[in-house]
Structure to design on (228 residues):
């Protein structure tokens, strides 16, 4: 940034641009360096809402809030699984046709995954129940 | 990222059973449960240590991870509303 500003001042000193143009260029430079507003709030909870209407039991509403920390703690728990058991888990997943390596589930990867969950919204709607899952 | 290290210390339980005119609001001091369980855990530590040697798992890491899962349940809420019964549980 300082190099660009220096370059503009040099151009002004050399008479290549006038003071108005220099001012405009510096203003544009400052605008381009301003941080872009981002939604940095962390995803804290997973919310599950169920609105069911059973003929026998009548209407039922369920509202569950699960902290994301539980997901993080669960992943940390996978760190204590013995290597042999991990291989067995991977093998079982492969047999089920799920190409997932449990060894790649690390707290670092998890943060990226949770970040992606920010936009997650699952809506299931049928005649008997409405289910909505989202992060907040 | 901050990580909770304490398990839920209390729970709020609101219940309104069928036929009851008013609901029941309870505050459950879960910390008393943990205070009761700590001596049991200390007594079980030798067994757990032997188990960790036999089954080759890191006892310290396992205890930390288990505590982490317990601590991570803080803030959980479950609310169920039926026709004439409702239950609300929150872990603090």
């Amino acid at each position: 940034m300082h190099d660009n500003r220096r370059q503009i001042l040099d151009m002004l000193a050399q008479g290549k641009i006038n003071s108005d143009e220099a001012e405009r260029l510096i203003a544009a430079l400052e605008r381009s360096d301003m941080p872009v507003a981002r939604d940095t709030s962390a995803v804290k909870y997973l919310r599950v809402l169920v609105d069911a209407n059973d003929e026998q039991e009548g209407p039922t509403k369920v509202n569950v809030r699960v902290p994301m920390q539980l997901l993080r703690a669960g992943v940390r728990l996978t760190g204590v699984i013995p290597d042999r058991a991990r291989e067995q888990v991977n093998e079982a997943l492969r047999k089920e046709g799920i190409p997932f390596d449990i060894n790649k589930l690390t707290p670092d990867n998890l943060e990226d995954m949770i970040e992606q969950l920010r936009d997650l919204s699952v809506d299931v709607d049928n005649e008997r129940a409405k289910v909505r899952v989202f992060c907040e | 990222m901050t990580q909770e290290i304490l398990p839920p210390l209390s729970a709020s339980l609101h219940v309104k059973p069928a036929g009851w005119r008013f609901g029941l609001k309870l505050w459950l001091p879960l910390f008393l449960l943990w205070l009761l369980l700590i001596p049991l855990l200390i007594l079980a530590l030798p067994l757990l240590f032997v188990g960790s040697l036999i089954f080759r798992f890191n006892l310290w890491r396992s205890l930390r991870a288990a505590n982490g899962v317990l601590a991570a349940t803080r803030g959980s809420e479950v609310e169920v509303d039926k026709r004439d019964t409702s239950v609300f549980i929150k872990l603090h």
